[in-house]
Design goal:
The longest helix is centred in the first third of the chain and has 25 residues, at about 10-30. This protein starts with 7 loop residues before the first helix and ends with a strand. Strand 4 (about 95-100) and strand 5 form a beta hairpin. Helix content is about 20%, strand content about 35%. By secondary structure, the protein is of the alpha+beta class. It has one helix spanning about 10-30; strands at about 50, 60-70, 80-85, 95-100, 105-110, 115-120, 130-135. Strands 1-2-7-4-5 form a five-stranded antiparallel sheet, with no helix packed on it. The chain has a two-stranded antiparallel sheet with strand order 3-6. The radius of gyration is 22 Å and the shape is elongated. The chain contains one helix and seven strands, in the order H-E-E-E-E-E-E-E.
């Protein structure tokens, strides 16, 4: 029975390759689909304010809610997808929502009793730090 050993230079080369390839593959994967997902089946992160505690797969918002994420790179454009729905039996009381980015209204939505996918455009900005999304 013979045993084959890897030489120390081979181990070192494998280690260096892994140290370089691992982060590089993460960067390539993130740049291909740079999604940031906020799951609502657990407590929301601190950068989400104006929301009631989550209830399974949905969350209620207060009259004013915000998502302010300071660490997002704004050199490129982003978009935010929201699924919106209300439970108002009286059609006259359906809410009208204004969504603002960096303090400027970019979208107005009449929320209905059906799920609506709302896509909020977030323009690239060299001067803005992070994303400041307000829902009123």
């Amino acid at each position: 029975m013979t045993r084959k050993f890897v030489s120390p230079p081979g181990i070192l080369l494998g280690l260096i390759t892994g140290l370089i390839a691992g982060p590089l593959l993460l960067i390539l994967r993130y740049s291909a689909t740079p999604d940031l997902i906020i799951p609502v089946n657990r407590p929301l992160p601190d950068y989400c304010t104006g929301f009631y505690p989550t209830e399974g797969s949905f969350v209620w918002s207060m009259p004013q809610a915000a998502i302010h994420i300071d660490w997002v790179n704004r050199r490129t454009a982003w978009s935010c997808e929201l699924d919106m729905k209300t439970f108002c039996p009286d059609p006259a009381s359906l809410p009208h929502v204004t969504i603002s980015v960096d303090g400027t209204a970019v979208l107005e939505v009449n929320v209905t009793n059906q799920i609506q996918k709302v896509v909020v455009p977030i323009a690239a900005s060299a001067s803005a730090d992070g994303i400041k999304l307000d829902i009123n």
